[in-house]
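Me: Here is a favour to ask of a fellow structure person. Could you put it straight underneath, so I can go through it closely?

Assistant:
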Amino acid sequence: MRKRTNSRSKALIDDEILKSRVREMTSEPKSSSKAGKILTHPLTTLIAGFILTVVLGGYVSARYTEWQKQQDDTRQKNQLDLLDKQKKDSDELNQSRQKDLIKLQDDNHKQSLELQAQKTREQKEIDNNSNRYATDLEFFRSELQRKAQERSARQQKDIDYLRNQFNIDKDRELNQIKLLETYLPYTLPDKSFEIRDMAYRMIARIVGPEIALTFAAFKSDSAAMQIAQSYLNSSDPNLREIARNTLNRISEEQVKRILAVISIFETADASGSFIDLKFFLTSRPRELLKILENYSKLPNAALKNDFNPYLKILRQNPQELRNNASFLELLDRVDDDTAMLKAKKDFERDDFFKEVFEKANELGIHTVLGIAAIYDSFVHGGFEVLKNKTTEEIGSPLSGTDEKTWIKTYLKNRIEWFSNHRIPIMRRLVYRPNFFLNLAEKEKWDLTGQDIKSIELGR
């Protein structure tokens, strides 16, 4: 029992000790030091939190402020760079615009100068055309006045008729001038050949052939020359003579000098003829027919009746006469007839010279020496070959080459052509182009001052 009581008491004591320990553990702690009290004080935590917040906040604020300053500096630098780039781009753009403006102003200035030059040229051309037109009109006025005065002079016998006729002529003159004013502008050089030819033909119908031929010689135009050619076969000898002189555009004396030089080359006689009738029968039967027909028309032709039976054969089949002994003997006999000499000389001056002059005109050759050199080439051949060779080398006078330079080059080519000819006897004829070249080198282009009878024939 006692044991059971002791055991219960021991258990109570142990239980009490345990409870005491629990109470100690759960009861308020014992008082500590001041530092501990301060540390455990609630304000300490608050103050520590405040200080920590201030420190951390200051640090964070300083770092943020520094970052923001860096950002502002970067932004400002970027803005400055952007402004600098914009200014640079603006300056470059302004410079480019300035250059473009200056170039545009220069182009406008050049165009203005070109336009002004073009206007000046056009005005000059207009003035030139006006001057040509005024000159042509004045020419017709003077010619018409001269013709009117001549008519008035012939009609002095009847005063009453003269007065009446003067009024009529005056009205006719005014009408003619009005018509001329219509057609003269179409004769200017800027018009086509067909238009100018039509205008000259209308003018010839208005003023008559004599004044038209005089005007053709005054103009020296290729279309005007057509008018002169149309009157070469006129029944009026006066018109034929005017047409011949117009086509030649050189004096009759100069034509005679050209023909005299060729005649001396061929016959050693300035008054002779270079035409060989038998040679023409073989090489130029049509020209021979024309010479014989002209001979037969002359009143002093002694053998014209003898030729009449042969003219028809010569027209139809000239080959039949090449071996006809009677006809060949007749050609020998007629050479002694002065009428045949005239027929030959007329052919040389009119027909042959016309062909030569047309070739010269096509090339732009107008000097007497140049025409003579071409005439000589027609007599002995080689003209077309040497003309083409010379033109290929230096062009032609019609295309702008100096005429004198072209003629000298042509003569030098002709000298070479004769010197290397395959026929030995032709080589002797080199003296002929040498003669012309010598005159050309001495600037004697008109064949004046030359004693043509003293030409060295080189025979």
